[in-house]
Design brief:
Layout: H1 6-23, E1 27-31, E2 37-40, H2 42-48, H3 55-60, H4 71-75, H5 79-86, E3 91-99, E4 109-120, E5 126-135, H6 137-159, E6 163-168, H7 178-184, H8 188-191, H9 202-218, E7 222-229, E8 235-246, E9 252-261, H10 263-298, H11 302-317, E10 319-327, E11 334-341, H12 359-367, E12 371-373, H13 375-380, E13 400-406, E14 412-421, H14 428-488, H15 492-524, E15 532-535, H16 536-553, E16 557-562, E17 568-571, H17 573-589, E18 596-604, E19 607-614, H18 648-658, E20 662-666, E21 674-681
Parallel strand pairs: 16-18
Antiparallel strand pairs: 1-2, 1-5, 3-4, 4-5, 6-9, 7-8, 8-9, 10-11, 10-14, 12-13, 13-14, 15-17, 18-19, 19-21, 20-21
Length: 683
């Protein structure tokens, strides 16, 4: 085989290089020493979309186009790099965004980097420059898209009300979070690593740290709530969620999370829970009050009401002491009627000293106003005296709440007081509850009094009916006997005596019947007065005349002391005589034979005063308030020597009241006599 000539070898080598140039994967553009394009390969055509036969390729390969004078190349600062290559230096050219449409012909836009390598001859002169392009469009677009996404993410994070953060795979803070710093006021140096925990509320800090570390270890979603300190120092509740971001190998690359401010909703929920709890406690309290009310309504006696009241009040208001004191006299003296003490004051269970009408108890009763005081206010109150002589025996007071007991007419009948509340001072609600229970109890006390009064009236009526039957039967026996005598006797003396017996007993029965008719008129309000101006001396004389036989019969020493003989009143003479005679007859009946009765008449300013005083059996103190009630009599003797129906004094009070006057009874006690005083307005 013949050996190839050098010319043939050169031709073959040229062909191989030409084929390599054309088929190579990289874009190659050959420039002459002046910047004109000499040749391009197929990869270049594919890169720019400029193919053989196109007007653009013809333009690029013509003397009309020079890379060094390309406006885009010049604007991108690439020309100096090309000049260095044309001067013989191999140069790496920075990325350029080149749009072939700027040449005035259709084309593509690509991001490329390039390397310009000079081709020299044997003498070292640059004959060509090989410009090799690398298409980085997809990479640039990917980087641009990533950068845009990151910018959008940061913009969204800044615009969002949430706090956005990222942590390393092991749970540390490495990357800055402007939203975290803006909310907490921490610097990056303060919040990095685990410094973010310093902004968490001290009570939430350790639990949050443990949960976070556990989630990092488990690679599970971090979700919790904690209070985060705001830049102004105020702690706000936030809901936190952190999610692990995994790489292609399934390992945690980083953590991304956000804090959402939920303070208002948490506070609203807490407020709702507090209101619900308060309403539940209020409902339970109202149930207790309702139960206490029902219990108080079922009790009929005053002692039982007082006992129930202190027990219920102490339980409802949660206090160590509860006391009911009812007014015992005209000077606001209170007797302690019921006491309820906790075990704390068990040693004082026997304390029962009543007040003397002074001090803070009386202040409540006089003013009929509730009083709610702290311990300091109680001790500073001018009416507080520490119970004086009883201070050592009285349980200690620790704050005080007292409410008056008021009857239906607005009068005071006592008070209910509590002290030493188990938790805190007394509140408006405590006072409102005690006022309500006091009102119910006051009605209960009034009802108990009325109930007792009705029972007493019923008892008196039973006694009255028995007494009436006896009083009406007594005259019948003498009348029947006298009538029999009249039938069988013709002796004038016997007839006269029998007639006198009948007349006397009939008059007695007539008096009883008239008294009964007067009672009937009183109860129906049908008594009418025949008024005229009359002298009081005339009224007294007529009354004395009617009562003198009974006084004489019982051998009483009787005197009249007329100190106002010219006194005149505007009234019904008959009714006023009835008043005086009733008082004189009562004095005669209830004074042992041989006693003394004095009738005194005097003037007092614009009134005339009439007193009937006797040395009789007297009146018990407990009976004094009742002597003017219907069917009331002092204790009778076994032989019923006093007689009467017990309605005289009731008629006296009614008649005196109809005349615009008043009547009063006084006695120092049994065996010490009585005094009845009538005041009538002068005409």
């Amino acid at each position: 085989m013949a050996r190839a000539s050098d010319a043939d070898l050169d031709d073959n080598l040229e062909v191989r290089f030409q084929e390599l140039f054309e088929q190579g994967p990289g874009s190659i553009q050959i420039l002459d020493p002046f910047g004109y394009t000499v040749r391009v390969n197929q990869a270049w055509e594919s890169l720019w979309g400029i193919f053989e036969g196109s007007e653009v390729k013809r333009y690029v390969l013509s003397r009309e186009y020079n890379v060094l004078r390309d406006p885009q190349v010049m604007a991108a600062g690439i020309t100096p790099y090309l000049e260095r290559a044309l001067a013989g230096e191999s140069v790496a050219i920075p990325a350029i965004h080149y749009d072939t449409a700027a040449l005035g012909l259709p084309g593509r836009t690509r991001w490329v980097t390039a390397r310009a390598h000079p081709i020299k001859d044997k003498q070292g002169a640059v004959v060509e420059v090989m410009l090799m392009h690398e298409d980085i469009t997809e990479r640039i677009e990917a980087e641009t898209a990533l950068r845009e996404r990151e910018e959008r993410f940061r913009t969204l994070a800044m615009a969002s009300s949430q706090i956005v953060w990222t942590n390393t795979s092991d749970g540390r803070v490495a990357e800055d979070s402007p939203s975290w710093r803006a909310f907490t006021g921490q610097t990056y140096e303060e919040w990095k690593e685990f410094g973010w925990l310093d902004a968490v509320h001290p009570d939430d800090r350790e639990p949050t740290r443990l949960v976070w570390l556990q989630c990092v270890a488990d690679r599970s979603v971090f979700e919790t709530e904690y209070r985060l300190r705001r830049a102004d120092g105020v702690y706000r509740w936030t809901a936190v969620k952190g999610v692990p971001i995994l790489d292609a190998a399934g390992e945690v690359r980083e953590w991304v999370g956000a804090n959402r401010d939920i303070h208002d909703s948490v506070m609203a929920q807490e407020g709702l829970a507090m209101r619900l709890d308060r309403e539940q406690r209020q409902s339970a309290l109202l149930a207790k009050v309702a139960s206490a009310s029902r219990t108080l309504h079922t009790v009929l006696s005053a002692p039982d009401i007082a006992e129930v009241l202190v027990q219920e009040v102490r339980g409802i208001l949660d206090v160590h002491q509860a006391v009911v004191s009812l007014t015992a006299g005209d000077n606001w003296e209170q007797a302690i009627n019921a006491v309820s003490l906790s075990d704390k004051y068990a040693a004082y269970a026997g304390f029962s000293a009543k007040t003397d009408g002074s001090g803070i108890y009386a202040e409540v009763c006089r003013t009929n106003t509730p009083m709610r005081l702290t311990q300091a206010e109680l001790e500073a109150h001018p009416a507080w005296k520490g119970f004086g002589a009883h201070a050592a025996a009285h349980p200690a007071m620790r704050g005080w709440l007292a409410v008056p007991l008021i009857n239906r007419k607005g009068g005071n009948i006592g008070l209910i007081q509590v002290s030493d509340k188990v938790d805190g001072d007394f509140t408006e609600q405590d006072e409102a509850i005690l006022v309500q229970l006091a009102s119910i109890a006051a009605n209960g006390f009034e009802n108990a009094r009325l109930y007792a009064s009705l029972r007493e009236q019923d008892r008196r009526k039973d006694e009255f009916l028995a007494m009436l039957a006896h009083e009406l039967r007594n005259p019948l026996a003498p009348i029947a006997s006298a009538a029999e005598v009249l039938k069988i006797s013709t002796a004038p003396e016997r007839i006269r005596a029998s007639s006198e017996v009948i007349g006397r007993q009939v008059r007695h029965m007539t008096s009883l019947v008239n008294d009964l008719l007067d009672v009937s008129r009183v109860t129906r309000g049908q008594i009418k007065l025949d008024r005229q101006v009359i002298g009081i001396e005339q009224v007294v004389a007529s009354a004395v005349e009617q009562s003198r036989p009974l006084i004489a019969q019982r051998a009483h020493a009787f005197s009249v002391e007329m100190q106002a003989p010219d006194a005149r009143v505007d009234g019904d003479a008959t009714r006023l005589v009835q008043v005086m005679s009733n008082l004189l007859n009562n004095a005669a009946k209830y004074t042992m034979p041989g006693g003394a009765i004095v009738l005194r008449v005097s003037r007092e300013a614009s009134r005339v005063r009439i007193c009937v005083t006797d040395t009789g059996i007297g009146i018990e103190r407990e009976l004094l308030p009742q002597v003017f009630d219907l069917f009331t009599q002092a204790e009778r003797t076994p032989d019923r020597s006093q007689g009467g129906l017990g309605i005289g004094l009731a008629l006296v009070r009614t008649m005196v009241a109809l005349h615009g006057g008043e009547v009063q009874a006084h006695s120092d006690g049994p065996g010490k006599g009585s005094t009845f005083t009538v005041w009538l307005p002068l005409a």
